[in-house]
């Protein structure tokens, strides 16, 4: 139980007056704020109560969000050791985690949202649903989920700023940019450490090509990133993108070295930030040296895993950017084989229908098959959202499509030359 500034009580979870509950409340707040200290609070909660279901589930969701199948065993072990419960909320979150670990993300999100409708003031459910739908590429569902609960809160409620930050991001991803910016700015006013909201405002500015404002906004916010999770590296990536778009590319590379490249600890999102920026810089003629290699090495560690199509496309790019297209081709073959073996799951289907072809097009781009790359990127342009991520992240696919098109224009195939 926590108190808002106005004295209202807001439940972050069911009330159990214990040390475990106090630590878990702090873990949830840290999750909402994307603070590294959340792991410590969660460990304290489980030390006080090793069978605390919400804490066990939160740990499982954290592992599942890594998009790595090699973590599924640990999640399944958590689920096997989960105590039985008749509490509807606890049963729902356990069932949602169980669904997601067997590659049924849509069911996981539906379960969370159904319970959220019954308990619209439950910020844990809200944030879990938001995260799952984001990884599913379901921006419309993300918006509908948070819209249902915004009206159940007001600005005096503890955590309202974090709710508003998620609302802002969902609005931005569904195209309501002005409303998203208003919500995001207000969220940051209410919760100055709401990095998700600050990052949502940066998304709006990127989409509206307000790159000078975006760089200034992020530069002013950067002191608040102290103590943030690796989301801080993603926010810095946004600032580097603004600098790139302003033709301040050496500054973008410097920012990459100082504040983006430092993150690479088993999380595909760190790699995706890095390689998408390196691709842009290299295409613009910036000498990025051997910066690709560590990401290529990381990518090879994930061959045969293939828990995220979004991640895999970036892994293929890392290998190609490092001048290792043969290894990238083998990586794509591994994606295809894995996706066909597990045909029914959501992620497997997305990998088979979208992820593997996109990763193959990346290899084509780097192996003098620009025509094939352009055709694939064009054919899948209206399917790219299915791999997850944001508009700003998926813009990389458009960049690679343009690179293929430019190569074709500079050096058209022989038949085209002859016809000309």
Nearest-integer average pLDDT: 92
The helix tally amounts to: 22
Specify the CATH architecture of the largest domain: Alpha Horseshoe
- The Cα radius of gyration reads 22 Å
Strand content: under 5%
Largest sheet, described in full? 2 strands, antiparallel
CATH domain fold name of the largest domain = Serine Threonine Protein Phosphatase 5, Tetratricopeptide repeat
Strand arrangement in the largest pleated sheet:
1-2
Sheet/helix structural class: mainly alpha
* CATH hierarchy class name of the largest domain: Mainly Alpha
Shape: globular
The SSE order reads EEHHHHHHHHHHHHHHHHHHHHHH
Number of strands: 2
Q: How many domain regions?
A: 3
Poorly predicted runs: 1-16, 416-420
What is the terminal separation in angstroms? Answer: 74 Å
- Residues in helices, as a percent range: 55-70%
Q: Please, could you describe this protein's structure?
A:
The protein is mainly α. The protein folds into three domains: 1-158, Serine Threonine Protein Phosphatase 5, Tetratricopeptide repeat; 174-263, Serine Threonine Protein Phosphatase 5, Tetratricopeptide repeat; 283-420. It has helices at residues 19-33, 38-48, 53-64, 72-80, 88-101, 105-118, 123-136, 139-150, 160-173, 177-190, 195-207, 211-221, 231-245, 249-260, 268-283, 293-301, 309-321, 325-341, 346-366, 370-379, 391-410, 414-419; strands at residues 2-3, 9-10. The protein has a two-stranded antiparallel sheet. The termini are far apart. 50% of the residues are buried.
């Amino acid at each position: 139980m926590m108190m808002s500034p106005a004295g209202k009580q807001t439940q972050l979870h069911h009330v159990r007056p214990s040390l475990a509950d106090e630590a878990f409340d702090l873990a949830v707040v840290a999750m909402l704020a994307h603070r590294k200290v959340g792991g410590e609070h969660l460990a304290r909660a489980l030390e006080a109560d090793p069978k605390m279901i919400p804490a066990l589930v939160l740990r499982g969701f954290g592992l599942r969000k890594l998009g790595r199948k090699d973590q599924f065993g640990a999640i399944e072990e958590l689920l096997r050791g989960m105590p039985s419960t008749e509490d509807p909320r606890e049963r729902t979150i356990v069932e949602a985690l169980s669904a997601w670990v067997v590659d049924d993300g849509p069911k996981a999100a539906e379960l969370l949202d159904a319970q959220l409708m019954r308990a619209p003031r439950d910020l844990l459910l809200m944030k879990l649903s938001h995260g799952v739908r984001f990884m599913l590429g379901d921006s419309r569902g993300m918006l509908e989920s948070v819209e249902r609960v915004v009206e159940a809160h007001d600005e005096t409620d503890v955590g309202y700023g974090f709710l508003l930050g998620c609302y802002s991001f969902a609005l931005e991803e569904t195209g309501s940019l002005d409303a998203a910016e208003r919500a995001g700015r207000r969220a940051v006013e209410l919760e100055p450490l709401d990095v998700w909201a600050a990052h949502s405002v940066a998304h709006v500015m990127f989409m509206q090509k307000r790159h000078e404002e975006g760089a200034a906004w992020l530069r002013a916010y950067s002191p608040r990133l102290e103590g943030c999770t690796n989301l801080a590296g993603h926010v810095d990536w946004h600032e580097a993108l603004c600098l790139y778009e302003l033709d301040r590319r050496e500054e973008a590379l410097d920012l990459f070295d100082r504040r983006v490249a430092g993150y690479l600890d088993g999380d595909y999102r760190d790699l995706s930030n890095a390689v998408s920026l390196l691709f842009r810089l290299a295409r613009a003629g910036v000498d990025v040296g051997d910066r690709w290699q560590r990401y290529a090495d990381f990518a090879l560690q994930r061959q045969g895993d293939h828990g995220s199509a979004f991640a895999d496309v970036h892994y293929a790019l890392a290998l190609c950017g490092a001048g290792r297209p043969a290894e990238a081709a083998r990586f794509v073959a591994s994606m295809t084989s894995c996706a066909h073996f597990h045909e029914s799951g959501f992620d497997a289907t997305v990998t088979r229908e979208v992820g593997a072809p996109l990763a193959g097009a990346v290899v084509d781009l780097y192996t003098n098959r620009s025509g094939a790359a352009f055709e694939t990127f064009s054919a899948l342009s209206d399917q790219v959202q299915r791999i997850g991520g944001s508009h700003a992240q998926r813009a990389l696919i458009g960049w690679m499509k343009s690179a293929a098109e430019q190569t074709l224009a500079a050096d058209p195939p022989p038949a085209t030359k002859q016809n000309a």
